[in-house]
Write a structure and sequence with these properties.
Layout: E1 2-6, H1 27-35, H2 45-55, E2 62-64, E3 68-72, H3 78-105
Antiparallel strand pairs: 1-3, 2-3
């Protein structure tokens, strides 16, 4: 997935510092959101996004700077999806087995419908 927005890095922020420091683009709007308690740990978004992607086994996003700001999030490869599907299938299989065991071991659980 690719997301592109107009505008490059904010004035005062170098590419080397991107993702490590926060520079407000609009002080009035940033202050308003801070006072409304709508800002969540300002300046940590890129770092948290990279950590979340790494924990999920995905590559960190590719970020391009220029007259536009572009971030590219890559999909997992097919083998990762296959592994996740197999793990989910194992979990569902275990749940089904436990449900069937419970039905077998308790006489009051039946398939009969009540009228």
């Amino acid at each position: 997935m690719e997301i592109t927005n107009p505008g490059g890095l904010p004035q005062g922020l170098s590419e080397a510092d991107f993702g490590r420091f926060s520079v407000r683009r609009n002080e009035l709007i940033a202050d308003l959101f801070y006072r409304l308690d709508k800002v969540e740990r300002a300046g940590t978004g890129i770092q948290r996004m990279n950590e979340t992607m790494a924990k999920a086994g995905l590559s960190i996003p590719e970020i391009k700077h220029g007259n536009f700001f572009t971030i590219i999030l890559k999909r997992p490869d097919a083998s990762i999806n296959q592994q996740r599907s197999e793990k989910l299938g194992e979990k569902l299989g275990e749940k089904r087995r436990r449900i069937l065991d419970a039905i077998r071991n308790k006489n009051q659980i039946t398939t009969k419908t009540r009228k």
